[in-house]
Inverse folding.
C-alpha cells in the first residue's frame, strides 16, 4: 500500500494559512467581546476544523463503486462463521478463507458497519469474498482451482488533509484532549511523545494550552478513517514543547529525535531463526507457496516477548492459524506483530515501552512447534525485520535539515494562527448563547 502523501508545502497549506490570516484580519476589525470567552464556561476549549476540503481534490474515486455482488453489512455480534452459515457457505470454505488470511489478519477486524461482498456461483460456491475495509481499500479472496483462496489488496489513491485541535488543560491531559474531540489512540500517542520532554504529572497545570495538527486520509471527497499526528505543541508557562512528524519519525523543534530507538529483536536473548522473511515461501504444512511476512524465532513456550518499541497495543486476538496475537502501533510509520503466543500480558489500548514484556511465546494456532512469528510493518507493508532500517534516536540528517525547517515553520504557523482563530470563534459562538 503506497500512501500518497501530500507534500508538506502544498498549495493546500498555503491556502489554509491565507484563510487563517483572513479570519484574523476580519476578526480584528469586527466588534467582539473578549470577556465573553471567560464568562461562558466550557467554551474556552474548542475544536477547529481549519481545513476540510483540499483546494483541488485529486481526480480519483473511491475504489469501491460498481458492485454487483451480494452485500453483507456487518452488524454487532456478526462473525465470519455466522455470515457464511447465513449464506449457505460450508465450514470447509471458511477454513480455506481463514487460511488465506493468516499472513494478513484482515478478516480479524470485522467491525460493525463494514461491508462484505459475497460472489456466489449458481451452485452456491463462493467464487470471491470481498472485504471493503475502508473507502479506499478493498481486499478480495478469490477461489483457485484447487479450492484454496488467494488474498489480494486494492487501494485507491489517497491524500491527506490537516485539522487543528486546540484546548486548555483542565484536569488531566487525557480528559482535556477528549474534550476537544481527539481520539483515545491519538491521545495515547501524543502523551507518549510529550512524555519524552516533560513529566505530565509534575509539569502540567490548569491553563496550559495544547494544539495538535491531525492528518486525515482522504480518497476522492471521502475520509478513509486513517489519521496521523502531524504536529503537537504544548504551551506551559515558561516554555513550549513541540513534536513534528517528518518522514515517519517524530522530532522536537531542533530536529532531535524524540522517539527512542527500536530493539531489533523482541526477546532479551537471541534465538535461532527457524524460518526467514520470504515473499514467496513454500509452506511447511500446506506445501503451497505463500508469503511469510515475518521471521520465526525458535523460542521455547513461555519465553518473555518484548515490545521492540514504545507504542500502543492496537489489537489482540486469537486466530485459528495465527494463534494468539498482538499488534502494536508505534506511531509514525511503524507497527509490529507477534503471533502464536501462549499468554498475552497487555490489554488493547494500553501504552507499552520499548523492551516491556507483552506476552509469553507459545505454539497456538497452526504451528509446527513452539516459536514466535514476529513482523515489522513500515508504512503498512511488512518488511524483513532482520534487515529493515529501524528507528534510531538520531537527529535530522544535515541534508534533510532545510526540508525539516520548512515543515517546522509551516506547522508552527498553522498551530499559532489556529490557536488565535479558535479564541475568536469561541467569542463568536458565545453570542449564540
Ligand atoms: Zn512465521
Amino acid at each position: 500500500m503506497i500512501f500518497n502523501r501530500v507534500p508538506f508545502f502544498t498549495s493546500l497549506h498555503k491556502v489554509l494559512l491565507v484563510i487563517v490570516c483572513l479570519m484574523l484580519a476580519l476578526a480584528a476589525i469586527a466588534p467582539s467581546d473578549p470577556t465573553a470567552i471567560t464568562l461562558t464556561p466550557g467554551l474556552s476549549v474548542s475544536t477547529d476544523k481549519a481545513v476540510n476540503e483540499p483546494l483541488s481534490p485529486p481526480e480519483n474515486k473511491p475504489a469501491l463503486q460498481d458492485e454487483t455482488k451480494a452485500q453483507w453489512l456487518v452488524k454487532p455480534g456478526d462473525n465470519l462463521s455466522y455470515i457464511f452459515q447465513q449464506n449457505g457457505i460450508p465450514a470447509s470454505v471458511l477454513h480455506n478463507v481463514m487460511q488465506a488470511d493468516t499472513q494478513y489478519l484482515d478478516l480479524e477486524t470485522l467491525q460493525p458497519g463494514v461491508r462484505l461482498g459475497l460472489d456466489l456461483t449458481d451452485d452456491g460456491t463462493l467464487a470471491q469474498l470481498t472485504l471493503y475495509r475502508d473507502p479506499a481499500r478493498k481486499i478480495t479472496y478469490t477461489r483457485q482451482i484447487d479450492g484454496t483462496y488467494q488474498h489480494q489488496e486494492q487501494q485507491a489513491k489517497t491524500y491527506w488533509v490537516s485539522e487543528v485541535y486546540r484546548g486548555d488543560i483542565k484536569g488531566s491531559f487525557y480528559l482535556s484532549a477528549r474534550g476537544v474531540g481527539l481520539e483515545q489512540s491519538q491521545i495515547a500517542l501524543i502523551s507518549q511523545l510529550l512524555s519524552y520532554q516533560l513529566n505530565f504529572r509534575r509539569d502540567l497545570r490548569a491553563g496550559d494550552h495544547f494544539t495538535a495538527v491531525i492528518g486525515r486520509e482522504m480518497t476522492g471527497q471521502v475520509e478513509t478513517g486513517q489519521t496521523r499526528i502531524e504536529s503537537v505543541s504544548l504551551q506551559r508557562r515558561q516554555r513550549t514543547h513541540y513534536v513534528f512528524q517528518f518522514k515517519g519519525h517524530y522530532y522536537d523543534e531542533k530536529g532531535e529525535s524524540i522517539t527512542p530507538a527500536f530493539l531489533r529483536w523482541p526477546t532479551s536473548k537471541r534465538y535461532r531463526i527457524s524460518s526467514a522473511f520470504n515473499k514467496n515461501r513454500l509452506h511447511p504444512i500446506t506445501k503451497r507457496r505463500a508469503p511469510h511476512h515475518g521471521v520465526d524465532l525458535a523460542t521455547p513456550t513461555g519465553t518473555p516477548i518484548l515490545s521492540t518499541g514504545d507504542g500502543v497495543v492496537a489489537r489482540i486476538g486469537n486466530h485459528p492459524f495465527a494463534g494468539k496475537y498482538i499488534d502494536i502501533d508505534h506511531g509514525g510509520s511503524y507497527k509490529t506483530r507477534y503471533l502464536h503466543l501462549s499468554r498475552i500480558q497487555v490489554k488493547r489500548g494500553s501504552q507499552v515501552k520499548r523492551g516491556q514484556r507483552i506476552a509469553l511465546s507459545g505454539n497456538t494456532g497452526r504451528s509446527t512447534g513452539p516459536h514466535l512469528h514476529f513482523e515489522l510493518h513500515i508504512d503498512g507493508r511488512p518488511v524483513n525485520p532482520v534487515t529493515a532500517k529501524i528507528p534510531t534516536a538520531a537527529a535530522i540528517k544535515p541534508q534533510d535539515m532545510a526540508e525539516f525547517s520548512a515543515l517546522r515553520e509551516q506547522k508552527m504557523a498553522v498551530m499559532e494562527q489556529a490557536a488565535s482563530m479558535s479564541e475568536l470563534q469561541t467569542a463568536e459562538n458565545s453570542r449564540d448563547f
User: Anything to note?
Assistant: Confidence is low (pLDDT under 50) at residues 1-67, 423-433. The two ends are 47 Å apart (CA to CA). The domain at 70-153 is CATH 3.10.450.350 (Nuclear Transport Factor 2; Chain: A,).
